[in-house]
Amino acid sequence: MKNSENVTRRIISTVIAVATVVVAGVGTMPQASADPLSTSSLDTSQVQGAAFNDPDCKSEFNPVIFIHGTSTTNKDWKNASNYLAERGYCTWAINYGAEPGRISYGWADLDQSAAEIAAGINNILARTGAEKVSLIGHSQGGMMIKRFIEEPGANNDAKVDRVVTFGASFGGTDVNGMRWLRGLFNSWPEFWKLMAGAAAFQQVVGDAGESSQIARVKSLPDTSPGIIYTAVYSPRDTTVTDTTSTHPVYGKNLPSTLQGEPGWVVNVDADQECGYSALLAHAQFPYSAEPIQLMEWGITRTPEMTTPVCGTQSSDSSPTVSSSL
């Protein structure tokens, strides 16, 4: 009897360990930092060495706002913000979704985070005096952009010019086929919210269904007229997936794509179009040199421009223009 109890405990411990690690990966793994979290969950303070959140920045272009993913911070956008700043852009990067005891952001309940992000975007519009912004999001951040724009009655679509997303969780994720996780989470919801964080818990879908938050996002229109969308994904992404998808083009990456008017909406296979085979799929999208060129293309292209302009890795690890320019 005692041996049976020990085996049961080991099985439960293993399931907890595996599920917690896997679900934490819905964004990126937590980034260790010597800096304390902002006392406010929503944070647009400046970061040393990063061009974003400069209140004195002036530009002829619309402000560019970066929205990070689960279990990370706005520091992921440091390279991208510096690159765009060199080209005349004013950039902003919001920290949102703090939870007590976490060393990073993007963990909180999706409804709470959506409200924080909306407040942050509106605050930046007010501070800059801009009529529109361009939004760039990764993982949960991409999904939050869709939610912001399509919020019923908010008229937020009139505030956005262009959208660029990387590995966005528009449709949640089955975490590369671990569809049993949703059922496990439904069994002990409060425990798993504590262990994995509400945001990760809520983004997981599976055979036992999906959270009300993801169901709500999926019920919203993918896009709004007048906004130019660029959604980037990688077939090697094992974090945001739908392994039951039979879509002939996007396959398991369907949750990271958008449907809409051709040209106004372009879905980019980063591996096929840009040869990003050296990238660690999903986690490195925000800060790697190669995708930064795609960000610039996405916030400058017109509906007639549907061939991606891809960046290449240079010897000094800074973004460079590829031969496709």
Features:
single chain; 325 residues; alpha/beta; Rossmann fold; six-stranded parallel β-sheet; two-stranded antiparallel ribbon; 10 helices; 8 strands; globular; disordered N terminus; disordered C terminus; lipase activity; Lipase_EstA/Esterase_EstB
Structure report:
This protein has 325 residues and is of the alpha/beta class. It has a single domain, classed as 3-Layer(aba) Sandwich (Rossmann fold). Helices cover 34% and strands 12% of the residues. It contains ten helices and eight strands. The strands form two sheets. The protein has a six-stranded parallel sheet with strand order 2-1-3-4-5-6, sandwiched between helices. Helix 2 (78-86) packs across helix 10 (289-300) and helix 5 packs across helix 6. It is globular and about 50 Å long. It starts with a helix and ends with a strand.
Layout of secondary structure:
Elements: H1 2-24, E1 64-67, H2 78-86, E2 91-94, H3 110-128, E3 133-138, H4 140-150, E4 160-166, H5 180-187, H6 189-196, H7 198-203, H8 212-219, E5 228-233, E6 265-269, H9 270-274, H10 289-300, E7 311-313, E8 319-321
Helix pairs in contact: 2-10, 5-6
